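User: I'm new to structure prediction. If I give you an amino acid sequence, what do you actually give back? Let's try with this one:
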Amino acid sequence: MRALVLKTMSLLVFGALVPMTFAGGKPRLVDLAWMTGAWHGDAEGVATEEFWTAGDGGMMLAVHKDVKEGRVTDWELLRIEEQPGGIALLASPRGAPATPFRLIELQGERAVFANPEHDFPKRILYWRAADGALHAAIDGGEGTQRIEWRWTRKR
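Assistant: Good question. You get back a string of structure tokens that encode the predicted 3D arrangement of the chain. For your 155 residues, that looks like this:
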């Protein structure tokens, strides 16, 4: 019970620390439907894949995989869910316990999730480019180290 109270308190404090920007009112999971599907990319000899399910039942699920020279070099389980305090992305790199990132910005096909308490990353961004490609980036906040991915629809 104590853990639940502490978690609730940290989420309330966390929510107060993160400014939110939403175009068109309170966001819903359906507003992230542009992320769904099978995506693939290749950068510097690393083939990457990310698969996002639809948001039925209040949750989107995803798996990310990086392959280099025929071997998996990195992987991650992700979910985006509706929670009482809003929408959150929960990231589990290599199956680690999930770290929450709260949706703080949603404008068209661009979403920013943040957790200022986390070491790195502090932000996870997703957006769709004019050419239809899905992009993702992680960083430590504006003007910090940034890692970025670009995927096209897998056929």
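You can read the tokens as a compact description of the fold. Here is one thing that stands out. The chain has one domain: 2-153.
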